[in-house]
Design goal:
The strands form three sheets. A seven-stranded mixed β-sheet has the order 2-8-7-6-5-3-4, sandwiched between helices. A three-stranded antiparallel β-sheet has the order 9-12-11, with helices on one face. The chain has a two-stranded parallel sheet with strand order 1-10. The protein has 399 residues and is of the alpha/beta class.
Length: 399
């Protein structure tokens, strides 16, 4: 019998989705599952996007240009200009979600064996895309005690070798909700400039910043314009994860030429998704303000509730809509599985993502979970109550 590839053995299972069969089985048993595991917002998609799909008047659902419709990219330049990010249409590639943007960035900029430095915990699929490209992630740990702040630059320099090709950040961060300060971004800029590295910057959650600090994009950093590859997506911004529209953005012409080859190889990004995404850009400020205010309230509900449960600790996330919480358990993978397969309280349970899958360093995150506050406050409150009951009964509780 033929054997499968080494790459497929190395590809990690998603900590966000790998327990989905247990959740499905729980639902089959009639148990209500509160989904805290995945960043799927329950808030409405903008009406202009829904109207564009409902009113679609096309005789043929054709290929789009490989880089995406020019009208969509032109409209995106106006969106970014609101954040003081000045782009041309040619700087932007429409991709099949932010995920494809990350993959194309790696395939275009990294050779097999090249290394990228990534603060961890980090979005789990970064590891999968690095493996797909043959690249190696060198992780630099952050700690929950320090709120997942950026490690000292000296720690980065300890990892830099002749194989180092780039640094990858997510700002605001998934899974921790951490927001990099101007000082931290300037430190990253200086490092990128000193060693002539790529800076891959995932900025999908820029709308969701809960401090008075200004949003600092990698595109704002002076002197490294040719080093920056920006990753973006409309999925979370407009609650339209299913249309699979993201963007890869760079001013580096050589990188753009390389990215175009991969765009052409996969033919084109989703047609209907682009139509919806382009229409979403017409959503007014009122839409974004309502969404933002709702997440502010949900964040307070979740973090206050978590820190009231005995033995549980979560720092206050300053962006996105996630937090990583420490629980008094022996193993978060076993615990999250136990919640779905062995436990229910009055016919209900919770589904969380074990945080170990967001780390590459063995043995880290074993008592942490990532929680997405994408449910309405009433459901979050109930889910927190259930979590307290779970922890009272879990046989592997510590302390």
């Amino acid at each position: 019998m033929p054997t499968i590839s080494v790459r497929s053995h190395e590809m990690p299972a998603s900590p966000i989705r790998k327990l989905a069969p247990l959740a499905d089985a729980a639902k089959q048993r009639g148990i209500h599952v509160y989904h805290l595991n995945i960043g799927q917002p329950d808030l409405p998609t903008p009406e202009p996007a829904l109207a564009a799909i409902r009113n679609l008047d096309r005789k043929v659902l054709e290929y789009s240009p490989s880089a995406g419709f020019r009208t969509c990219r032109k409209k995106l330049t106006g969106y970014y200009k609101k954040f003081n990010i000045n782009l041309t249409v040619d700087d932007i590639f429409v991709t099949s979600g932010g995920s494809e943007a990350v993959l194309f960035a790696f395939l275009s900029c990294l050779n097999p064996g090249d290394e990228i430095i990534v603060p961890e915990p980090a979005y789990a699929n970064y590891m999968a895309f690095a493996i797909s490209a043959g690249a190696v992630i060198r992780s630099i740990p952050t700690s929950i005690e320090e709120g997942f702040a950026l490690p000292k630059i000296e720690k980065f320099e300890e990892l830099i070798s002749e194989r180092t090709k780039g640094i990858l950040i997510c700002n605001p961060n998934n899974p921790t909700g951490y927001l990099y300060s101007r000082r931290e971004m300037n430190q990253i800029r200086d490092l990128v400039k000193k060693y002539d590295l790529f800076l891959f910057s995932d900025e999908v959650y820029r709308e969701f910043i809960y401090t008075g600090s200004p949003y600092i994009s990698a595109c704002h950093l002076e002197g490294i314009e040719q080093n920056v590859v920006l990753i973006d997506s409309v999925s979370k911004r407009y609650s339209e994860c299913g249309i699979r529209i993201g963007a890869l953005i760079t001013k580096n012409e050589e990188v753009r030429k390389a990215v175009m080859k991969f765009c052409q190889a996969r033919l084109s990004p989703p047609l209907i998704g682009q139509i919806a995404a382009e229409a979403s850009l017409d959503a007014g400020e009122e839409y974004m303000r309502e969404i933002y205010d709702e997440y502010v309230e949900r964040r307070k509900c979740l973090i206050d509730g978590l820190n009231k449960i005995p033995g549980v600790y979560s720092p206050i996330p300053m962006g996105a809509f996630y937090t990583v919480a420490r629980l008094p358990v022996d193993d978060s993978d076993k615990f999250c599985a136990w919640c779905l397969s062995e436990f229910d309280y009055e016919g209900e349970t919770v589904f969380m993502a074990p945080a170990s899958g967001f780390y590459t360093t063995p043995g880290t995150g074993v008592n942490e979970v990532r929680i997405a506050y994408v449910l309405k406050k009433e459901d979050l409150t109930r889910a927190l109550f259930i979590l307290g009951k779970v922890l009272e009964q879990y046989p592997g509780r510590i302390g």
